[in-house]
Specification:
The structure holds two protein chains of two kinds.
Chain A (H helix, E strand, L loop, with lengths): L2 H20 L22 E6 L4 H17 L4 E6 L8 H10 L6 E5 L2 H8 L8 H7 L1 H4 L2 H7 E2 L2 E2 L2 E2 L1 E4 L3 E4 H7 L7 H13 L3 E4 L6 H23 L9 H14 L11 H9 L3 E5 L3 H8 L5 E4 L7 E5 L1 E3 L8 H12 L1 H11 L2 E2 L11 H12 L1 E4 L9 H17 L2 H14 L5
Parallel strand pairs in A: 1-2, 1-3, 9-10, 12-15
Antiparallel strand pairs in A: 3-13, 4-5, 6-13, 7-12, 7-14, 8-10, 8-11
Helix pairs in contact in A: 2-15, 10-11, 11-18, 17-18
Chain B lengths: L5 H32 L16 H8 L1 H32 L6 H9 L6 H11 L12 H8 L13 E2 L6 H8 L12 E2 L2 H25 L3 H9 L4 H12 L1 H16 L3 H6 L11 H11 L3 H32 L1
Antiparallel strand pairs in B: 1-2
Helix pairs in contact in B: 1-14, 2-14, 3-8, 3-11, 4-8, 5-8, 8-11, 9-10, 11-14, 13-14
The chains are: A alpha/beta, B mainly alpha.
Chain lengths: 432, 328
């Protein structure tokens, strides 16, 4: 082939390629106009996407599947899971499917900004108002939860559980042997930490592989330093990220990190909890999925308390399920959502998963001692959204904060971190 | 255009599908990424309005990206150096006519057959630092402990070695206006060497194979002639063998260089971004910012940056080799 032919062929191909690539991906319809549900297909299937792959969470999910199949034996359930704590591996996989026009029938998503900003404002979800009316859910879910799952006057997902992020876990035996008490203030925390260090015990166990556990620790310190109201203001732009309280929170965190295990960036949260179980570390600040981990590992001497400054504050996160537009089997999904939101469904799922019901009418006797105390706190505490788990801020904002935290946990430069946090709030479009 | 013979038509028809597929799936998508990188697409909803080069300006101002460039440079240089030294050394040793050469050759080559993900997971376990304070050790640190050698924190080490601005040399740099060199952004992240160890373990066998082929291509007469002229064994290598291996070294640099600039899977499996981004690389940043942060335009600009940096390496090589082919 002559050079000329080759080049004209190549340029033809390039032009064709550019034309093809110019066909932008289908823009989803705005959220306000729901498309009518597709006619039910002949095959009855239900694909549920989640990152529940281990221990209690996987067992809880399977119990829900069993209950579903008892009612609808002819539906084949596809359990689509992607492993990884806090869903940091699963979420990119989900996005690829959603953007590619191949959504699962229903997927696990954190209640709050993660659901709203990622999927609702962009028009990928169906509103569920009719389900909420038919099932009378407006009466059984607490008003605080209903507010977090609604947008534009509609409900967009069904919460299945509630987790608490602000829990300080400790080893009762170690504490009793030394006459220690869980610290109620940051001053008490640091006094206790010194005492632990003197005994050769790592005061704070931290496992922040993937960094979210550090962001988690920071949100708990923020709530403990700012109090519920000002903490909530951080996510609406009413509390100043450049203010003295945020600075104080960062300083507290920097000091706390000095008492943490040096290999924290190589461990996961459950490996950090192992240090507490073995008595090598004194405390760990982590969400209440630690309770399920302790039960699974047969550790009965676990003690818990609100971390310093967060008495009367419940930093909450919740797993919810919704109905994506273009879900292949919407009828089956509606039945799934009915089950997930029902009293029977939540009572079957939550004691195994190690969380409390999002409904307020579950029987507390079904739950273990920690969860019973959480149910009591849930009823009376101020409820604030978790940052690290998608309730308080959009995912793009959380990613920016994670980046700030990644540098902060190593250089502990308070001024730089505070400037980074303020910039992140601006980049997220919340602060001016 | 000359006349189209039947043969020519057939040959065009035969290559057309692959040309089309490559045109769309490689060049089309490169063009698409380039376009996205110049757009305002932030968030899940595509927004292809024109943003100019703002994404690139912002990218280079991002502290994380500056750290990534530092890491890539440190990784590329040490990975290439380690692979070349080790690969060449092994090749020369094997070239001495050892017994069971086939066995050794295969042994050294085998790691290359493994995916970077497997290598990454394995080395993550081997180099897990444990906690020396409580004596909870694993992997290589057990070995070091047994030999009474100092333990390493490996890929969890946040240390960055850099010229302190307070030191004598640092003050000198500040005085002559090169103070920016005395910052962590021009330092060496210690954790990166754990990644280098894993990558070298995997790729040095391949480099050895290339050098071995090169060594076998050097006629024995040349060495003999040098020896007859009175050269000792060291001089034979220094003046005859190594210069003749230069084209091999160039190929090695190109092949390993583009692997190291684009490295993602090994880092993702082994340490992810690491403490204080000590092991973060542009490809991993691109993955996180695009698929976790939904900053699509920003992610696309990282992709284009990677493409350009790889082409800086590959295009001169292509020109060089086509010229050589034309000469031959």
């Amino acid at each position: 082939m002559s050079r000329h032919t080759l080049w004209s062929l190549l340029s033809l191909v390039l032009v064709a390629a550019m034309l093809l690539s110019a066909c932008a991906p289908p823009t989803p319809a705005p959220a306000a106009t729901p498309t009518p549900a597709a006619p039910p297909p002949a095959e009855k299937k239900l694909e549920i996407f989640s990152w529940w792959t281990t221990g209690g969470e996987a067992a809880g999910l399977l119990r829900l599947f069993e209950m579903y199949n008892q009612k609808f034996p002819d539906v084949e359930i596809i359990n689509a899971t992607v492993a990884g704590g806090a869903g940091f591996e699963a979420k990119p996989a989900l996005k690829a499917r959603m953007l590619g026009g191949d959504p699962p029938d229903s997927f696990q998503v954190h209640m709050g900004r993660e659901l709203i900003d990622t999927w609702v404002t962009t028009g990928y979800m169906e509103p569920l108002d009719d389900l909420f009316k038919e099932e009378g859910w407006e009466k059984v879910f607490p008003p605080g939860v209903l507010e977090i799952i609604s947008y534009n006057g509609s409900y967009w997902s069904v919460p299945v559980n509630i987790h608490r992020a602000n829990v300080l876990w400790y080893n009762k035996k170690v504490f009793e042997a030394n006459g220690w008490k869980p610290p109620a203030t940051f001053d008490e925390f640091f006094t206790l930490a010194e005492a632990m260090k003197a005994k050769g015990i790592t005061p704070l166990a931290l496992g922040d592989v993937g960094i979210w556990a550090s962001t988690h620790l920071f949100e708990v310190i923020l709530a403990g330093t700012l109090g519920a109201e000002k903490y909530n203001g951080l996510w609406t732009g009413q509390t100043d990220w450049n203010g003295p309280e945020v600075k104080q929170a960062l300083e507290t965190m920097a000091k706390m990190l000095e008492y943490a295990n040096p290999d924290h960036s190589a461990l996961s949260w459950d490996q950090a909890n192992d240090l507490v179980i073995q008595g090598k570390a004194g405390m760990t600040i982590m969400g209440d999925w630690v309770d399920a981990d302790n039960l699974a590992k047969g550790f009965a001497d676990s003690g818990w308390a609100p971390p310093p400054g967060t008495q009367g504050i419940f930093v909450a996160l919740s797993d919810t399920f919704g109905l994506p537009k273009k879900a292949p089997h919407p009828e089956q999904v509606r039945e799934w959502l009915r089950l997930v939101g029902s009293k029977a469904g939540q009572e079957a799922f939550n004691p195994v998963k190690g969380s409390i019901c999002a409904r307020n009418d579950c029987d507390p006797k079904l739950f273990g001692p920690y969860l019973q105390s959480a149910i009591q706190d849930w009823a009376k505490d101020a409820i604030v959204p978790s940052l690290a788990h998608g309730a308080a801020a959009s995912e793009s904002w959380v990613t920016l904060i994670n980046d700030v935290m990644t540098v902060f946990v190593t250089d502990r430069d308070v001024a730089k971190a505070q400037a980074g946090l303020a910039q992140a709030c601006k980049d997220a479009g919340v602060c001016k | 255009m000359r006349h189209l013979s039947w043969d020519r038509i057939i040959s065009i028809v035969v290559i057309l599908p692959s040309v089309l597929a490559i045109g769309v799936f490689v060049y089309g998508f490169i063009a698409w990424s380039g376009w996205v990188s110049l757009s305002n697409w932030d968030g899940l909803r595509p927004d292809l309005s024109w943003a100019g080069f703002g994404n690139y300006a912002r990218l280079f101002a991002t502290p994380r990206f500056q750290i990534d460039i530092r890491n890539t440079i440190v990784f590329t240089i040490s990975f290439l150096a380690a692979c070349i030294v080790l690969g060449l050394g092994l090749a020369i040793l094997l070239d001495q006519g050892v017994r069971g050469e086939n066995v050794f050759r295969s042994l050294f080559l085998f790691p290359m057959a493994i995916s970077f993900i497997v290598t990454g997971v394995t080395w993550r376990w081997l180099l897990a630092p444990g906690d020396p304070a409580t004596g909870r050790l694993t992997g290589v640190n057990v070995l070091l402990n047994g030999l009474n050698l100092p333990l390493s924190q490996w890929y969890t080490d946040p240390t960055v070695l850099y010229i302190r601005p307070t030191g004598e040399f640092g003050q000198f740099l500040v005085r002559i206006g090169l103070g920016f060199l005395a910052t962590p952004n021009f330092g060496i992240p210690v954790a990166m060497f754990s990644i280098v160890i894993a990558a070298t373990w995997q790729m040095s066998g391949y480099v050895m194979a290339m050098y071995l082929a090169g060594l076998r291509g050097i006629p024995e007469e040349l060495r003999e002639a040098a020896r007859v002229d009175g050269a000792d064994e060291w001089q034979v290598y220094r003046h005859i063998v190594l210069p003749l291996l230069r084209p091999i070294t160039l190929s090695v640099v190109i092949i390993l260089g583009h692997i190291s600039l684009k490295i993602f899977d090994l880092v993702a499996a082994m340490s992810k971004k690491g403490p204080g981004f000590a092991t973060d690389v542009p490809a991993y940043f691109m993955f996180e910012t695009t698929f976790q942060g939904d900053h699509y335009a920003q992610g696309a600009s990282i992709a284009i940056f990677l493409l350009l940096s790889v082409s800086l390496l590959v295009i001169p090589y292509l020109i060089y080799s086509t010229r050589r082919e034309a000469e031959l």
